[in-house]
Design goal:
Elements (H helix, E strand, L loop, with lengths): L1 E5 L14 H12 L6 E3 L2 E8 L2 E8 L6 H12 L6 E7 L7 E4 L8 H10 L6 E5 L8 H5 L5 H23 L2 H8 L6
Parallel strand pairs: 1-4, 1-5, 5-7
Antiparallel strand pairs: 2-3, 3-4, 6-7
């Protein structure tokens, strides 16, 4: 069993923002597999799919970004999912927009949602898919990540979200190494 969790903030006011690209990726996968994310438990909304014979839970914590670890820890512990079968997808201001970075483990960097998950799990040995959103040095960080994409940027980020979903599927169907080799590239226009 795998858990693919996308990070974001619940509520219409946050839909489509840079901070919610993890949620957007889960929504993309749910649509692809024709599953509704309509179960509410573990401080999350989720749905279950099957990828190549493997049960996979698509999860969106509803705890708000900075408390994502509460939801993730609940579901991981309840289902006794091996830590290496937890895949977290989230936005990252520290890598350029248009870039995916898949890593097997590591620190939270500057991401408060990841800080919360690592703190709650007391472990950082899980794969993560980071979607680069870049940063704007002329804007307050909170304002920047909670801002919606321009029309042109939305089109570009949609292709990255598709790649992020494919990277998660690759981890489930093949391996983390295969996903890193295939998707750790800078995407161009």
């Amino acid at each position: 069993m795998y858990i693919i969790a996308g990070l974001g903030n619940p509520g219409k006011e946050y839909a489509g923002t840079r901070h919610n690209v993890g949620f957007d990726t889960i929504d993309f996968l749910a649509e692809k597999y024709n599953v509704n994310l309509n179960k509410l438990k573990f401080n999350s909304v989720y749905g279950e799919i099957n990828i190549n014979g493997e049960k996979v839970m698509l999860v969106k914590p509803v705890t708000y970004m900075n408390r994502s670890g509460i939801a993730i820890a609940e579901i991981v512990k309840y289902y006794k999912v091996p830590i290496e079968n937890l895949i977290i997808i989230y936005d990252d201001i520290d890598i350029p927009a248009g870039t995916l970075r898949i890593r097997p483990h590591g620190s939270s960097g500057t991401h408060n949602g990841m800080k919360s998950i690592i703190y709650q799990l007391e472990n950082d040995k899980f794969p993560r898919i980071r979607i680069g959103i870049g940063r704007n040095p002329d804007m307050d960080l909170a304002d920047y990540v909670l801002q919606r994409f321009s029309k042109d940027d939305r089109e570009k980020i949609n292709s990255i979200i598709k790649s992020a979903s494919e990277a998660a599927e690759e981890i489930v169907t093949k391996s983390l190494d295969s996903s890193m080799q295939k998707f750790n590239i800078k995407l161009t226009n």
